[in-house]
Specification:
CATH superfamily of the domain at 2-121: Gcn5-related N-acetyltransferase (GNAT)
Largest sheet: 8 strands, mixed
Shape: globular
Structural class: alpha+beta
Radius of gyration: 16 Å
Low-confidence stretches: 175-180
Strand order of the largest sheet: 1-2-3-4-5-6-8-7
Number of helices: 6
């Protein structure tokens, strides 16, 4: 478990099935998650059954974001590549009343430290819709740098949307940077 003040990141638990079912099937989230079809509870239960597997095996990690003990979202590490020492990161503050309160910053900071100090990664990247100014601000504030634009990358509701790629490189002083 990772913690920063009132924010806690924890592993998935069987009782999270209804949360995941609601979040994954909320069409408001589909554009940022590249989802185009609903998830069944069966598929999500299968995912939960394997969520305990090591990130080195599955190449991904999902953690539940809790604020004062209540789940408010999830954060994912994906495309984990231990050879090239990198992974992608994505975050969803699903409960709209908790957006814009700085919780995303706390979560991303926890994950940056985890990726660089514990996993020994060299870089973390994220993909953000060019129209998602709040997410761009969040990641830039935390040291992510714009590295490219993918034009007409996402097709949603009959329109094409550009996607920006951001990257954060580990500073030299992170403990595991030179290892491995």
């Amino acid at each position: 478990m990772l913690q920063n003040g009132k924010i806690r990141l924890r592993a998935l638990e069987p009782q999270d099935i209804d949360l995941l079912y609601n979040w994954e099937n909320n069409q408001d989230n589909w554009m940022v998650s590249n989802t185009i079809t609903p998830y069944s509870k069966f598929v999500l239960e299968q995912y939960l059954m394997h969520s305990h597997e090591d990130i080195f095996t599955t190449k991904q990690l999902r953690l539940i974001i809790e604020f004062e003990g209540c789940p408010i979202g999830a954060v994912d590490l994906f495309d984990f590549d231990p050879h090239h020492k990198r992974c992608g990161i994505g975050i969803l503050i699903a409960d709209k009343q908790h957006r814009g309160k700085g919780y995303g910053s706390l979560v991303i900071k926890l994950l940056i430290d985890y990726c660089f100090e514990i996993l020994g990664l060299r870089q973390i990247y994220c993909n953000i819709l060019a129209s998602n100014k709040k997410s761009i601000q969040l990641f830039e504030k935390l040291g992510f740098e714009w590295v490219g634009l993918k034009k007409d990358w996402v097709f949603n509701q009959g329109l094409w949307h550009n996607e920006c790629m951001y990257q954060c490189l580990a500073p030299i002083n992170y403990a595991n940077y030179s290892k491995g």
